[in-house]
Design brief:
TIM Barrel; eight-stranded parallel beta sheet; binds D-xylitol-5-phosphate; alpha/beta; binds zinc ion; single chain; globular
């Protein structure tokens, strides 16, 4: 099992985004996470494909994880992949044909992911799991960085890990996003998560590299694997 840490660019200083992307790369993070918001699916706006393209230009070797918080992600898949997305995650609650959207993402040769809001049941994923390379559990209500972790999501992580292990997909990637720090990351890892997005926690550190390494180590240790 891979344990990975993905700083979310949502918490970066937008006045110097290029150097913030380089900071993520030099921290030894496994990827940069880009949160795309449409002020409709979530009550906030962030940025679009140009920032994904900027990340590719500044740090071509840094994996770009793109989380689409859009009501109609299907209409934007091509633009984000052309801009440089290496994985595209769509919400299972989005207003589109989820089957077709995941199939389209995979047809471009990038990783496909499904995301659940904290209130959504794992059962909603079941028809689509064979089309997903990863599942992202939101551990806050999507829309803003800097919110508090919602521990009620923890049993759902375990439920999905049990399901994917039972299906023989023992290396299935389960990501968490929202309010992640050393303690909450370890709690998620103990339930079966292996990919950890963290925004405000990592960007507020004076030593991002040290925090990335420590978060990865603490989560791996808590997983018991
Ligand atoms: C929230 C985003 C998260 C957010 C996490 O809608 O999906 O990726 O940036 O930020 P923190 O780690 O500050 O909760
Ligand atoms: Zn996100």
């Amino acid at each position: 099992m891979n344990f990975e840490v993905l700083p979310s660019l949502l918490a970066a200083d937008y006045g110097r985004l290029g150097s913030e992307i380089l900071k993520v790369e030099s921290s030894g993070a496994d990827a940069v996470h880009l949160d795309i918001m449409d002020a409709h699916f979530v009550p906030n706006l962030s940025f679009g494909p140009d920032v994904v393209a900027l990340a590719k230009r500044e740090a071509p070797g840094l994996f770009r994880s793109v989380h689409l918080m859009l009501s109609r992600p299907d209409l934007y898949i091509a633009r984000f992949i052309e801009a440089g997305a290496d994985s595209v995650q769509i919400h299972v609650e989005a207003d589109c044909d989820i089957w077709q959207a995941l199939t389209a993402i995979r047809a471009y040769g990038v990783r496909s992911g499904l995301v659940l809001r904290p209130q959504t049941a794992v059962a909603a994923l079941k028809p689509y799991l064979h089309l997903c390379d990863e599942v992202l559990f939101m551990t806050v209500n999507p829309g803003y960085g800097g919110q508090s972790f919602m521990s009620e999501v923890l049993p759902k992580i375990k439920e999905l890990r049990t399901l994917t292990d039972g299906a023989g997909r023992r290396d299935f990637d389960i990501m968490v996003d929202g309010g992640i720090n050393y303690e909450t990351g370890a709690q998620c890892a103990a339930q079966g998560a292996n990919l950890f997005v963290a925004g405000s926690f990592l960007f507020k550190q004076s030593d991002m590299a040290g925090a990335v390494a420590e978060l990865r180590e603490r989560c791996a240790a808590a997983s018991g694997l």
